[in-house]
Amino acid sequence: QKEVEQDPGPLSVPEGAIVSLNCTYSNSAFQYFMWYRQYSRKGPELLMYTYSSGNKEDGRFTAQVDKSSKYISLFIRDSQSSDSATYLCVFAGGTSYGKLTFGQGTILTVHP
Amino acid sequence: DSGVTQTPKHLITATGQRVTLRCSPRSGDLSVYWYQQSLDQGLQFLIQYYNGEERAKGNILERFSAQQFPDLHSELNLSSLELGDSALYFCASTTGSSYNSPLHFGNGTRLTVT
Question: A44: cis peptide before it, omega within 30°?
């Protein structure tokens, strides 16, 4: 079983839609949960970071963590064309000091 | 712009050759991470350095090595290259040494082995 499973997509939505991106994980030692966004031909950039179960909101983005179900989600409200990118769920913790575990990524396209 | 600089942007070389990828971290960042991104594997952690010392190792092959210099720039050396080494190689830096410091990624070096 993979440590991290990310909904593969790709997703294509119209502008203004609500987008839900999801990942499950199996490693109970993960303590930190992040979402990175990667535009084409660029390196990933941090979007959201949290370490507790529940919701964390930042503008149009909401990160949700459910540690009991080992499930995290990223919601994007009022999606815009500039949101078109690959979204990576990222996990950290456990005995691997300094190591992050990345999901495979979900490609999102927001069209007019 | 993340502030992390990677050179070269593209590299094309033949099997069996050796290449060196270079990374300059953000000003003030002491930690440097190297990642490999391929289509079938996603982002894979290779190695981390903190202030010149190796701190963590991931799925780094024995043919690969890295170092961080006193001026904090880092180099990733790939030798005896194989076709399967073709990938995007990213460098990232942070201010701290632990995993809860957000990573700032460069734009990568695209390596093609023919």
Answer: no
Closest approach of chain B CAs to the CA of A97, in angstroms?
Answer: 6
Tell if the CB–CB gap between A43 and B56 is shorter than 8 Å: no
> Average pLDDT, stretch B11-32?
96
The one-letter amino acid at B107: N
DSSP collapsed to 3 states, B41-105: CEEEEEEEEECCEEEEECCCCCCEEEEECCCCCEEEEECCCCHHHCEEEEEEEECCCCCCCCCEE
Sign of the CA dihedral running B83, B88, B93, B96: negative
Chain A neighbors of B66, CB-CB under 8 A: none
Residue-wise pLDDT for A68-88, tens only, equals 999 999 999 999 999 999 999
A&B contacts, CB < 8 Å: 62
Cβ atoms of B91 and B23 closer than 8 Å: yes
Burial state string for B67-103 with b = 16 or more CB within 10 A and e = fewer than 16: ebeeebebbbebeebeeebbbbbbbbbbeebebebeb
Vertex A43, ends B77 and A36: CA angle to 5°? 125
Q: For residue A44, which amino acid is it?
A: P
When pLDDT is averaged across residues B90-103 and rounded to a whole number, the result is 79
CA-wise closest residue to B23 among B82, B94, B85: B94
